[in-house]
């Protein structure tokens, strides 16, 4: 059963924690590409041009006064420059400072990144309570990895009181948003009765959802469970799967 935290990045640690520090819309290879609003017309164009030319030091130089004047988008982008070591020495403390300033108005990616930084002690003291706080904030805004991470923290009792029932609620929200790791987590829990009442109908549902994302092991387990379900159980699972497909959480097929 999957037990690792998600961290969106190219590196991995003792936890799987799928981590990619979110980068700019015109980021280079190896970084996630996330659209952000323009800071201001002329300023943003000049900064983009500097970035495209690889003049990262100038990008930092131009972003800094904007960030210091309270431009939240500039604060977020400046945090990313520090986090990725572009134009400045990599400095997670500075990154955390600017992320803190920016998260109130930007997308949940900034809040997710803060959760990672507090969880993994990147430039800030390790603080599981703060990590859970930021994962919850990002998750409430629809970030499926944040929802999954929060579920793991409730499952393990890190930063929150251990509560498997609460963990299942967060896993379910992540799974319904299409996160395969959450689907596999729930499938295994319901198949084995680990922390929940054993329910092969729900186990089949979550394996079927994961199989829609080309997971061969999930497909094999789905097919094995299908032979054990009664016709009524199978129909119930298929009906729920179709509902989730209609909502756009999994591919039809």
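Sequence proposed for the structure above (253 residues):
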């Amino acid at each position: 059963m999957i037990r690792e935290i998600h961290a969106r990045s190219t590196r991995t640690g003792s936890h799987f924690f799928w981590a990619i520090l979110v980068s700019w819309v015109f980021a280079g290879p190896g970084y996630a590409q996330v659209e952000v609003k323009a800071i201001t017309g002329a300023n943003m164009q000049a900064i983009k041009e500097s970035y495209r030319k690889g003049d990262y030091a100038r990008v930092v130089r131009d972003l800094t006064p904007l960030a210091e004047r309270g431009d939240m988008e500039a604060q977020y982008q400046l945090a990313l420059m520090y986090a990725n070591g572009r134009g400045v020495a990599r400095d997670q403390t500075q990154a955390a400072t600017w992320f803190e300033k920016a998260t109130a108005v930007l997308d949940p990616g900034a809040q997710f990144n803060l959760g990672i930084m507090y969880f993994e002690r990147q430039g800030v003291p390790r603080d599981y309570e703060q990590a859970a706080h930021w994962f919850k904030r990002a998750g409430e805004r629809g970030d499926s990895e944040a929802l999954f991470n929060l579920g793991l923290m409730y499952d393990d009792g890190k930063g929150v009181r251990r509560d498997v029932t609460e963990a299942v609620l967060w896993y379910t929200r992540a799974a319904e948003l299409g996160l395969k790791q959450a689907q596999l987590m729930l499938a295994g829990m319901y198949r084995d009765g680990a922390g929940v009442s054993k329910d092969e109908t729900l186990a089949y549902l979550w394996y079927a959802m994961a199989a829609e994302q080309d997971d061969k092991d999930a497909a094999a387990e789905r097919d094995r469970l299908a032979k054990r379900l009664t016709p009524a159980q199978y129909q119930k699972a298929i009906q729920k799967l179709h509902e989730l497909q209609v909502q756009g959480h999994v591919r039809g097929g």
